Amino acid sequence: MAADDNRDAGNPSGEGHGIRGTVHGSAPVPLSVLDLAVVSAGRTSSDAMRNSVAMARLTESRGFHRYWVAEHHSMPGVASSSPAVILAHLAAHTDRIRLGSGGVMLPNHAPLVVAEQFGTLEAMAPGRVDLGLGRAPGTDGATAAALRRTDRPEEAADDFPRQLAELTRFLDDDFPDGHPYRRIHAVPGPVQGTSPGGVQSPNRPPIWLLGSSGYSARLAGLLGLPFAFAHHFSAQNTIPALDLYRESFKPSEVLAEPYALIGVAALAAEDERVARREVKASVLSMIRLRTGRPGLVPSAEEAEAYELSPMERDFAASWSSNIIHGTPDEVRTGLDDLQKRTGADELMINANTPTDDVRLRSYELIADAYGLPAA
């Protein structure tokens, strides 16, 4: 039985909460998608949104388990500043695939607002919405200060456990008597089911904690929540963080055992030379971001012509070594090896390339390599 067909809220294994996916074909674990809504040179944000819809529909038809959108700000090459808005659009164009945030950066938002947004998404796509949460700003310090309306944005990140607890209570509508928020309700939400004549959906978006270090790994373990690790940009911390998560894990009403997915940068092409060219473009985009020059994701042609400095060459070699790319067989082997090394329960693939057709084709080729269901 597929995860989304089993909705017994009393089942702590995770299936009833839409957490554990179904393995298709010869894939070692369920496969999912991370989308950054890339805006490349010569393209618009409207183009990026159309491509996101095409990717969601394609990957849904091929048996990918979930499709997440990440929150980023003040980055011209990334159009995913408002995950909830994008997810609503994707919900209107899909039927089965789980949709979620990878993630919402909670310190940037009031917990009540997040509860309302994801309660609304749950009403639009019942039983297939994930709420992934992070504590980083998803941007630079100055933008974080503008988002959080404070000169000390780091204080909001330090307050993450309290914000998380508040958000959880809004989602469950269970503030205790005497709490100042006891009479405040996130709507859509459980209060509608307890009102006279009310009928409320039994589903509520499961919370995931996201991270690139040990902080969220430990917190997710202590709370018995599923954990998503950003291997695609923090590969050196992957195994330590997953070990910490599993060591810290305490069974909860959500999960009886740990469940961890990792974000993986992967790109497949029939011709490995195409994959290498596209990876050069994503690496150049990251070089510019890391050196304070964010812009549109450069084309493959621009990246080919760009002369890297010695320092940039070192960075490019290090960064591209964590991107699994090449022919479909090479990518399948790389994904299999990574899953074995990390013990990840799910692989969330990010094909961060400037060319829409190459990005779409990569997911098709990976699906074919594993024998996932035909479209």
How would you describe this structure in keywords?
12% strand; 14 helices; 375 residues; globular
Account of the 3D structure:
The protein has 375 residues and is α/β, with parallel strands linked by helices. Helices cover 42% and strands 12% of the residues. It is built from 14 helices and ten strands. β2 (66-69), α2 and β3 (98-101) form a beta-alpha-beta unit.
Please identify the structural class as seen in this structure.
Answer: alpha/beta
Helix % is 40-55%
Q: Which ranges are low-confidence, i.e. pLDDT below 50, for 5 or more consecutive residues?
A: 1-11
Morphology? globular
- Biggest pleated sheet: 8 strands, parallel, barrel
Topology, pairings included?
Layout: E1 31-35, H1 45-61, E2 66-69, H2 83-91, E3 98-101, E4 104-105, H3 111-124, E5 129-134, H4 141-148, H5 153-158, H6 160-172, H7 191-194, E6 207-211, H8 214-223, E7 227-229, H9 238-248, E8 260-268, H10 272-290, H11 300-305, H12 310-320, E9 324-326, H13 328-342, E10 346-350, H14 356-370
Parallel strand pairs: 1-2, 1-10, 2-3, 3-5, 4-5, 5-6, 6-7, 7-8, 8-9, 8-10
